[in-house]
Amino acid sequence: MILTQSAKALAKNIELYGVRNAVVLNEAPERIARAFPSYFNKILIDAPCSGEGMFRKDENMARQWEIHSASRCTAMQRDILKSAAAMLAPDGTMVYSTCTFAPEENEAMIARFLEENADFDLVPLPDGLGFSTGRPDWLHWLNAVSYGFNRTVIDENTEFIARAR
């Protein structure tokens, strides 16, 4: 599922911040990966998510939550991560971000990705950016390895960020 509105919002933000060396693509991830294998030095994934972090900002998000369930989103996120990994140039950096609390979309998604992609490592974010550690303890039901995850609250919205190389 391609979310045109999200791509438009992201393109607008990139333009507002004066970023000149970025491209926003609104296409199936596997098609982009076929066109750009090992091409990008940096990839930012603004992953489609269940949006739990937006509930306080937009009450409609809470009412529509079932429509955008975490299980549907995790399938899209896995495909996006797989394709992004194929597009990342050697020694490149990939950043994965969501606006949800759901550990299956955050810590569990990245833990699974790292288990399936041994050539990637989680890169700690610098101190002093306002991030708290993530919740790897929420992964006990997956028997997953503990990684260093990062969370922050921005404008009452929860953001999850993981950086990998």
Describe this structure in words.
This protein has 165 residues and is α+β, with helices and mostly antiparallel strands. The protein has a single domain (4-164), classed as Vaccinia Virus protein VP39 (Rossmann fold). Helix content is 32%, strand content 20%. It is built from 5 helices and 5 strands. Helix 2 packs parallel to helix 4 (70-87).
Overview features:
165 residues; alpha+beta; Rossmann fold; five-stranded mixed beta sheet; 5 helices; globular
Topology diagram in text:
Blueprint lengths: L3 H13 L12 H7 L4 E7 L12 H5 L6 H18 E11 L8 H10 L15 E2 L16 E5 L2 E8 L1
Parallel strand pairs: 1-2
Antiparallel strand pairs: 2-5, 3-4, 4-5
Helix pairs in contact: 2-4
Within the largest sheet, what's the order of strands? Answer: 1-2-5-4-3
| Tally of strands | 5
Biggest sheet details = 5 strands, mixed
Count of structural domains = 1
CATH topology: Rossmann fold
* Total helical elements: 5
Distance between the termini: 27 Å
Helix content: 25-40%
CATH H-level superfamily: Vaccinia Virus protein VP39
Regions with little confidence, pLDDT below 50 for 5+ residues: 142-158
- Broad CATH class: Alpha Beta
Task: Tell me the structural class.
Answer: alpha+beta
Write a concise synopsis of the structure shown.
It is built from 5 helices and 5 strands, in the order ααβααβαβββ. With 165 residues, it is α+β, with helices and mostly antiparallel strands. A hairpin with a 2-residue loop joins strand 4 and strand 5 (157-164).
